[in-house]
Every structure is written in structure tokens, then in C-alpha cells.
Input
Amino acid sequence: MLSNHIINELITALGRENVQTDKEDLIAYSFDATAAMHQHLPEVVVTPVSTEQVVAIVKIAKENRVPIYPRGSGTNLSGGTIPIQGGIVLSLLNMNKIIEVDPENLTASVQPGVIIQDLNNAAASCGLMYPPDPGTVTTATMGGSVSECSGGLHGLKYGVTKHYVMGMQLVLANGERIKWGGKTVKNVTGYDLTALFTGAEGTLGIITEILVKLIPVPETRKSLLAVFDDLDNAGKAISAIIRNKVIPATLEIMDNVTLRSVEKFTHAGLPLEAEAVLLCEVDGYREVVDREATLVEKILKEEGAIEAKLAKDDKDRDLLWFARRSALPALAQERPTTVLEDATVPRSNIPEMLKAIRRIALKYKLLIGTFGHAGDGNLHPTILTDVQDKEEMARVDKAVEEIFQAALSLGGTLSGEHGIGMAKAKYLTWEFGPGGVDVLRRIKEALDPDYLLNPGKIIRRD
Output
């Protein structure tokens, strides 16, 4: 338990209204969006409103050897914000100012608690956009997105979060504040600290300000739906589109299990008997979009789509993408617990990965729906289960391990956009080997030797 002395120090630094200690208030911070993870109650939740207050919190924690768990909206999917050692949850939701949108330099400066959609709304008034587009874009924070290096539907053409972070301000584990980066297009001064702290999941420092790149909003866009009765044909179509030098803004896949759940949830008119559907959107200048949409439709049919059609209008288009964004909530209606994984393979191996997931589902007698970002090989096998059924959960654990093994054997990775957190930390040696994990450990211990920042995530203390 934290002593009254520590609590009083926090109250002095932040004000009583920004320090929560009532158990009922703390429960909401004992878990995040990751399913089937044990809850851990923090001892206190603090909500700073400035970098100076974050510095004060970190110094109090360091002096008293208390762990700190930075947190945004808690929408992460790898157990990354669960306070497994109690201590302090540092919520950054009150640091939610858009400091600047700069149309001349195509940048924006924000505090970490800014909701991604709010930044896009502000940028849109200048004809600009922030492309990273996670499924929780209307609730996820910029700080959480940068810490997880989240991706989303636009990853194929526009890249993921790390491609847009130009600099940041951050508080280290010793309470020191550092700032780097800037609005210059080129910057190769020193080590690439931006890359190091993007995706570090709050284990190396606490982000308090972020500078990101913006781009112009495309002039127009067109969306297509393609229906396949064969997974191999769907996979070949994905590769064929890229091979023909068309890079869609979005290229998504949903398998039959997902289709059935989504149609029941949205009534969008999806084909219930299809083995898979591809959803594709091209954007840019009108002339280019018209040409690429026609070409993509032709490729889809040549590669075995039994149907390929353009969205007739914006209403039709919006319904297609509403259906895709409903994949997770739709699947979550099927069983009490939804275990969403994040296996990523080279796009040419998507058919093999989909088949592997089906084999694993049959082997362990589990219902698994798969959807994801086909264009960049990022699949989300979603296991529908019940955490109260211990025997079934034991099979789920074995299935998850085999899904990761399959992804790695196909030249893939443990995570394309969900991070490692506590859920995947035990698998890191499978991808990096002991030497690679040791490098991560040495970086962690150089910056946070006492393991006070988000301990138990990515790298565990020996």
C-alpha cells in the first residue's frame, strides 16, 4: 500500500481533484480492452494537466520506488496499460489540447490526451488529414497511439503512426524532461529517438507532447467490394493489385465467420456464403481514381472474384466501411469473451495464414473469425470464447501460440499494430532470439534501471 505521505505529496503536486484513491474509482483502471487478462487494481490514479505535473509525479515515484503506468483511453489490445504491480496509474486524458495545426508546414502539435478523430476534425478545416486510422479512432488518444505505434485501415498506402511522428516531448524515468524533433522535413541529428520512443508502450518515458506530419485530403475516392468462393483466389487478387502498381488507400479482408456475424449486426447486404470478401478503396486525383478503380475491378474478376462491384454513391460506400469497422463488435456479440490477436505475414502468404488459422480452429474446436488489413498482411484472428470456461480457455491459449508460430514460420511477426504489452512478452524470443531480447533489456535498463515505467510490459525484470 502507498503511504499517506506519498498520497499527500501527489495531492500537493496536483490538487485533490486530480488524485483518485477510492476503490470504486480505481476499478475502471484495473483492466483495458484486452480480453481474458487478469485485473489489477492500482493504488492511486493521477490526472496531470501539464508536463510540469508529470515531472512532479515521476520524481515522487522515483524517490519512493513506486511503479507508474501511463494510460490514455485504455483501448489497447495487449494488456499494455494494466497496472500489474499496483502503484500509480498516470492518466493523460486531461492533457488534451491541440496546440497547433500548421498548414504551411503540414504539421500539428498535440498533447497526448487528444483523441485522434478530434485531430482529424481540426486538420480537415485546413484541407488536411492525419492518416493513421486505428479501429478505435473516435476514442483512442494520440499518446496511446504513438506509444503502441498503432496502424489501421490506411496502413497500406499511407503507413502507420511511426511514419508521421516528427518529434516529441517526454519525461524520463528520472524526472528529466527532454524534447527533440521539429518541423523540418529532414532531420538526421543524432540517434533516431523518435523511432525509439514510438511503440515503446510507455516503458522508456512518458510522452507529454507530440509533433506529427499531416497530408492533404485526397480529392476523391472510390470503393469496391469483391466476393470470393476460394481463399487462394482472394490472396492472389491482393498480390495482383499491388503487382499492377495500384496502391489502394485501403484493402481489407473478412472471412466467412466474420461475414456472417457482421451481416447479422449491420444488415449491410453482405454475401453469407462467400469464403471471403475484399474491400478496396482507391483515392487521389479524380482522373487517377477513375482509372485505378476500373483496373482494380478488372483485376479482381480476372483473379476469380465471383462478383466485384463499385459502391454506387457515398451512402453505399459508407455502408461498406461501416460493415468492415463493425467486424470486432459484431464478433463480440457471439460469445462472452473475444480474444483478438494480431498476426502479420507478408501479403503473399495471406492465403496460407488464413488456412493455418482454420486448421488451428478445427484442431482446438474453437470458433475463430478472421478479418484484417489484407494489403499489408496484418490479420486479426478473433477467437470467440468464454473466459469462465477454463477447459476451453486452455485450448484458446494453445491456439494463440500456434497462430503466432504459424505467422513466424511464414516470415511474419508477432504484432503488426497491437504491440507486445504483457500478452505477448513471453513470445519475444521466438522472433528475436535471446540476443535480440537482451538488446531490448539493455535499452530498458539504460533509461529505466529501476523498472518503474510500465513494468512487466515488453521486457520483464529478471
Notes: The chain has a mean pLDDT of 96. The chain has 15 helices and 19 strands.
